[in-house]
Every structure is written in C-alpha cells, then in structure tokens.
Specification:
The protein is an alpha+beta fold and 140 residues long. It contains five helices and five strands. The termini are far apart.
C-alpha cells in the first residue's frame, strides 16, 4: 500500500458520498462543511471530479470562471487541497491570516516549474478557515 499517494485510485469508481465517507472517515464532517460553504466563500465556484492517469487517482478541481483555484485529493481520514502560486504571491502568502505552519511550509516548498505549491491538509474543521482564506486570495 502506497502511503505517499492519494486514495480513489480506481478509474471505474467515481467518487460519490458513500466512497468519500469510507475513505474520509472522521474527516467527512469537515468535507461536508467545506462542500456546503464553498459557494458562499467564492461565488461561482465549480467543482469537478476527474481521474488523472499521471497520478492514478481521482482529483477534484475547484475552479471559477475557468481558472483553477485548487486541487483536492482524498487520503485516509483526510482531504488535501493543493494551491499553486506564482512568484508574486510569495510575500502575500506570508501576510495572509493563515496558520503559521502553512506560511512556513509554503516558504520552504519546492517550485514546480514557475509555481510553488501550498497544501492544506484537512482532518477536521480546524484548517477550513485557512482553506477559505487561500481560496479568496487565489481568486483575488
């Protein structure tokens, strides 16, 4: 069992509520809260699941007006939202009202091409406010 990659690895099994409940476990309550709040956090948000061959997993793309806000992957008892930011976001991210561990992780993250990833792991409601702050900043 590979622990370094997300779950939802069966291309023939698209994520539904039952499957998400099984994998998210105690984090499912935070997932449900996130899903119900997203439309009010960022107006016009679209969420779509797709199976990606490169990562061999289903990912949820969170977008607005065709622009990707973040990617969501499902893990055992957690979901992770990954944002990608360009160089000009570096100083801004440090000023955002988010958990200091997230700002530090972003500052030390390795670039992927011209972008730098910032991942928020959600196991309960604790990091939802950070997630919303980053979403609002991303659509800025």
């Amino acid at each position: 069992l590979a622990l370094d990659r997300p779950l939802l690895n069966d291309p023939d099994e698209p994520p539904d509520d039952r499957l998400l409940s099984r994998h998210l476990g105690p984090a499912k309550a935070a997932w449900d809260e996130y899903m119900s709040n997203v439309p009010t956090v960022v107006d016009g948000t679209e969420m779509s699941w797709r199976y990606y061959l490169d990562g061999k997993a289903w990912l949820c793309k969170v977008a607005r007006k065709g622009r990707t806000i973040c990617w969501i992957s499902v893990w055992q008892d957690a979901f992770k939202a990954t944002f990608y930011f360009g160089e000009k976001a570096n100083a801004d991210i440090q000023q955002l009202d988010i958990d200091v561990s997230l700002s530090q992780a972003f500052a030390s993250s390795t670039r992927v091409g011209k972008l730098r990833p910032l991942q928020v792991e959600v196991r309960d409601g604790t990091h939802l406010a950070d997630l919303y702050t980053l979403m609002r900043y991303k659509v800025g």
